[in-house]
Amino acid sequence: MQTPTAIDHDSLSHKLEQIGKILRLIGWVGIITQLGLGVVAGVMLLFAIAGRNFNQAVAPAVPGIAIGRGFQNATTPGLGIGIFWAVCGIIALLFTAYLAFRQLRFARRLRNPNPELHPKKSEVMRILRIGIIAGFIGMGLTILGGGTAMGVLLSKSIAQPQGVAIYDPTRIIRPLDVLVAMANMIGISAHFLGTIASVATANWLHRQ
Prior knowledge:
This protein is mainly α. The chain is built from five helices and no strands. The model is unreliable at 60-74 (pLDDT under 50).
């Protein structure tokens, strides 16, 4: 027959094992989601930046446009701001991926038989709260970038005359404009998923 102390110890060990499994699962999901979507958004931004630089390089060769004015018009006004906010959002994604890696380390420490090496609940909650704050900041940055890119696309679509050839490069909707918007949308999705996972984990741990 087990003593109350042995029963309490087994219950505590089972609870710590369960918490470790949850932290490990959320940590891996966070790393794969944040890094995977971050890489996709980064590749889109690289194509957009490469296309932007290429347009700047060939702008002086556009017939009928002065060299100085052609260089400026080779890039879409406002698109650089969208790229900037998207890059900031990707940096925030890398930070949240690092926090997810910290959760994996916590899960590993919980499997250690030495109770002194177990992380404190306050330490785990602090990392989760930082992840939630970072997720909201990342969503805010990518929302700004996505709003800017969508504003550029909307202004171009409104400015395009119907049935008339367009010679002004700033009024043409190009693939790089769409890539910037898509990169920001992917960043918003990645931060949203990471924030939801952190909030759910924090609420679950709070009830334990």
